[in-house]
Amino acid sequence: MTTVIRSAGRADAPAIYEMIMALAVYEKAEQEVVTTPQEIEETLFGADSKTEALICEIDGRVAGYAVYFTTYSTWLGRSGLYIEDLYVSPEFRGHGAGKALIQCIAKTAVERRCGRLEWSVLDWNQPAIDFYLSTGALPQSEWVRYRLAGEALRAFAAK
């Protein structure tokens, strides 16, 4: 099998959208996806986008994707990268696609002199947790992530 990791572009928006939906189904959150392929194309690949995306192809077929963006650590005094999404289609799992995507992002982080590479995983997703542990990544259990979204975000911003 030939694995290729490449930067995603506008033409990849429909495939990325399909994988976003597949990831949402897997994470039992399909109802939370409100975007469209057109919106993915506009926002992910627009001129002012601060986000980057990769596509993994195996034998010329789209096998997975990753979306990531730059963060900043005041404690390190350096930027970091945050992986928003990492998804590999079930038929391609176990062939190194996820590892290749993370390694590509890790190389980018090193080239950019980033202080860290981070991502989140659902606490019930043991296959992903096992995979991430196999890369040498460690859970950051002392931190609890908070989120303001939707109406709560709008209401708080209006105060």
Describe, in plain words, how this protein is organized in 3D.
This protein is an alpha+beta fold and about 160 residues long. About 35% of the residues lie in helices and about 25% in strands. The protein contains five helices and five strands, in the order βααβββαβαα. The protein has a five-stranded mixed beta sheet, sandwiched between helices. The mean pLDDT is about 95.
List keywords for this structure.
alpha+beta; 159 residues; 5-stranded mixed β-sheet; globular; 5 helices
**In percent, how much strand structure appears in the residues?**
25-35%
Task: Specify the structural class.
Answer: alpha+beta
Helical percentage: 25-40%
- Our Rg estimate from Cα atoms comes to 16 Å
Give the SSE order as H and E letters. Answer: EHHEEEHEHH
Overall geometry: globular
Individual helix count:
5
Would you count the extended β strands for me?
5
End-to-end C-alpha gap: 56 Å
Flag low-confidence runs: none
Largest beta sheet: strand ordering: 1-2-3-4-5
Q: What's the overall average pLDDT, rounded?
A: 96
How is the main sheet built? 5 strands, mixed
Question: What layout of secondary structure does this protein have?
Answer:
Layout: E1 3-7, H1 13-26, H2 37-45, E2 51-58, E3 61-73, E4 78-88, H3 97-111, E5 117-119, H4 126-134, H5 150-158
Short structural summary:
The chain is α+β, with helices and mostly antiparallel strands and 159 residues long. It contains 5 helices and 5 strands; from the N terminus they run E-H-H-E-E-E-H-E-H-H. The protein starts with a strand and ends with a helix.
